[in-house]
Protein: DUF4440 domain-containing protein
Amino acid sequence: MSEHRTELLDAERRLQQAQRDGDVNALDLLLDDRLVAIGPDGTRFRKSDDLDAYRAGTSKIDTLVEEDLAFVVAGTTGATFALCSVTGTFGGEPFAARLRYARTWTYQEKEGWRIVAAQISPA
Structure:
């Protein structure tokens, strides 16, 4: 079980790096096809929305600095709670904010940890 904890932290860090790099291929592997995410303004997004925005350049992370990270693992379900300072572009508009990311992950032997749900809130 401690292996799952280490793998979840690694997946969270790989996600943050993929966001900074705009790495659509890495994001595709880390986001479950069933993903539902709620943005800071309450807008609902799916995996395809997120990937399309990165591809188009309407979502771009310039800086993402993790300030705090907590997590829990219960069997094949995990949750991460990250507080980050973020700058970039969202919806084609520049932004700078401290954001709280609450992500629910599911673990499968073949795919490893993938995000199925996320909530982003201003901090």
